[in-house]
Specification:
The mean pLDDT is 94. The chain has seven helices and seven strands. It is globular and about 50 Å long. It has a seven-stranded parallel β-sheet with strand order 3-2-1-4-5-6-7, with helices on both faces. The protein has a single domain, classed as Rossmann fold. With 243 residues, it is of the alpha/beta class. Helix 1 packs across helix 7 and helix 3 runs parallel beside helix 4. Helix 4 links the parallel strand 4 and strand 5.
Length: 243
Amino acid sequence: MQQKPFVGKVVWVTGAGGGVGQATARMFAAGGANLVLNDRNEDRIAPFAREITTQDNKVIISAGDLRDPATAERTAQIVDAQLGRLDILVNCAGFNVANRRWGDVTPQAVDSVIETNLSAAFYCVTAAMPMMRRQGAGLLIHIASTDGIRMGTTGGPAYSASKHGLVAMSHSVNLEEAVNGLRSCVICPGGIDTPFLEHRANPPSAERREVLLRPSDVAEAIRYVASTPTSVRIDQITITPAI
C-alpha cells in the first residue's frame, strides 16, 4: 500500500494553476493532504482541484489576485473556517516580464513583478501566521530562485530584487518566529522548464529546455522539507540543473 505521509495535514499552495505550484499541489494530494489552492484564474484551477481530490482529502480553491492583500486574508479565513488549522504554506506564485533589462523596464513592470513575487508572499505569510502561532507550529516554504542569492542578467533587476527580498523574508521569519514554533525554508531553483520561460524575450531552445529542472524536481525538494520533524529546520535549499 502506498504511504500517504500528509494525511490530516492542511496545506495552502499559491500559484497552483501551473508549474511548480501545480506539481506541489499534486504531490501533497497524493500524500493525502487537505489542500487550499490559490490562483488568479478560477477556470484553470477548478478542474485541477477536481482532478486531485480523492476520498482521502479535501481540496478547496480560493481564486483571486494575491497582489491584493484581501485575497490572502480571505483565503486564510476559508482555511480556518473550513479546515480549522494550517500546517504548511507554500508560496509558489511568481511572475516576470519579457522586457526586463534596465533599458526596457518600466515602473509598471517593476510593480507587477515585485508585487507578485514578494508582496503577495508577505501577505500570505502574515495571513497564515495567526493560525500557526495558535497551534504552536507551522511550516512556511517559499520558491525563490538562484537569482535571489546571486546576481545575474537573465531574470532582470526587478525579478532578482524580488527574489532577494523573498530570501530575506524567509530568514527573518526564523529569527523572530522560532519561539512560536514556526519554521521557514526558502528554495532557490535554477532554470525550470515551465511556461514561465515563455515570458522571456528570447525563450530557450527545445534542446536547452530538455536539460532544465522539472517542476516535479522542485516539488520533491518541498516534499523533503515538509517531511522533516518539527525539531528540524531547513533554512535554505539551492537546486540547479546538472548541466
